[in-house]
Every structure is written in structure tokens, then in C-alpha cells.
Amino acid sequence: MAYTPHPPVIVPEVGRGREREALSTVEAMRALSDLLFGISPAKVLLLSTPHHVMRRDRLEVISGDSLEGDLSDFWAPQVKVKLRGDGELASSLARKLREAGLPVGLSLAKTIPLDHGSVVPLSYLLSPYSRSDLPRALILSPGFCPLNAILEAGKVAFDLLDSLEEPVGMVISGDLSHRLTPDAPAGFNPRAKEFDEAFVEALSSLDPRPLLELDPSFVEMAGECGLRPSMILFGAASVKPFRSRILSYEGPFGVGYCVAAVEPAVL
């Protein structure tokens, strides 16, 4: 499982040299690709980002015949990702979530657009795959549900994926505070780094409790977009023993970027 940032600037075709200002992130993304998928590439990927469909009152499971996206909005249409969908698995996940008492919708269509929250990390993480052996994919959007509900959804999703007789993976993306420096895109707040420190510590220990206890006004102050999707990862990692490795954290451009690999613990 992976937690990644998703700034388009780290993709060379977008950054055009500026990606070197986030070199720790770029190197960590390359390492993450080899670490998670270099030996045994996943056949199924669960994706979650804060920039896809975000329902106010429910989770959303999304898939189709194909999932496709590019970085045209960032002047790099040549950076493209196209994956097969898995409508049957998406339907099963929606059913399992409903059985767990969670509010969820199911969206199936011929073609599902992928936002940059998926395209950016996948442009790195799919490098070990041959074009003919790309994984099937589905999206679990956290919406604006309570964090505890999203945490439970992560558990349900992991249980279902873990029951499949093929390698599976999760790619959860989100940027941390957007207010780390005076030139940050959301403006500067001197306490913003406190959020990032709390998040990285929680991700390192795979203990979401400190994040669940944060004052909502403090979270809003940080201007982050990774907290909600991260609860899917925390929930999944609570089902079996896992360990987390923080591969990098940095805050170039005034935005916090964290890259982490979450792997089965060796007992």
C-alpha cells in the first residue's frame, strides 16, 4: 500500500526542471514504485484521492470499462494513464460497505476519468508494468463522511481485496498543508507545519487516533487535502500487522509532500 502526494510539478513533463526542487519526493516516488510493484506487481489497484467525486453524505465506489486520465490541465497531455476497470469488484465493495452500515453510492460507466490525484502518482508507480499487464482499478472516494466512517470503509475494502487470489494494492494520495511558507498557494500560517508533523508521525506509527482528535478548525487552518483519503489507508492497515516506512517528507512550494510505503510486518 502507498501514501503519496500528487503535485503535477513533480512530473518532469510538467515541472520542466522545477521537479528538481522536490528531489526528495521524486526519488521517493521512484523508490516506492520498485518497492511495492517491482517484484510482484499488483493485479488490482484501489485508488483514492480528494479530487475525484466527493459526495457530501456518502462514500462512492467508482469503476467502469476503463479508467483514463492525463495532465492536459497542466500542459502535459502526453502524460497519460489508462487502466482497465472492474465493475464486478466495485459492485462487491459497495455491497460490503452497505452491509457494514456505511453510506455508499456506486458509480459505473464505460469510461471513468482519472483526476491528477491519481495520474501523478501512477505516472511513477506504474513504471514496473508492461503495457499489456497493467492492473485493473477501482476508486473509493471518501466523500465528506465522518473520519471514523472512512476508517471503517478502509477495513471493509482491505478485507475484500485480501480475499482475492491475486496480488492487490492501494494507492492513496493527498497533499498535506498548503500553508507552510509565505509564498504558499493558500497563504501562510505559522502553525501549518504542526499539522504536517502530526500527520507524518501518525502515518509512521499507523495510529490515526491523534488525527481523529484534531480540532476541525486546526485541520481547516492547515489547508490540507490528504486527511480524508488517508483514513482508508489507516483502516486497511489495522486489519493485519503492517509497518510503515516514511520515504520522504518535504515542503517545497509551500505544500507538504509525504511519501510512505505500508507493507506487511515481518513477525
How many domains make up the 3D coordinates?
1
Mind telling me which CATH architecture this is?
A: 3-Layer(aba) Sandwich
Radius of gyration from the CA trace? 17 Å
Mean pLDDT, to the nearest integer, reads 96
The name CATH uses for the topology is: Protocatechuate 4,5-dioxygenase, Chain B
Helix content: 25-40%
The H/E string reads EHHEEEHEHEHEHHHHEE
Number of helices: 9
Please tell me what the overall shape is: globular
Main sheet: strands, sense, barrel:
9 strands, mixed
The fourth-level CATH homologous superfamily is: LigB-like
Distance between the first and last residues' Cα: 18 Å
Structural class: alpha/beta
Count of strand segments: 9
Contiguous low-pLDDT stretches (5 residues minimum) are none
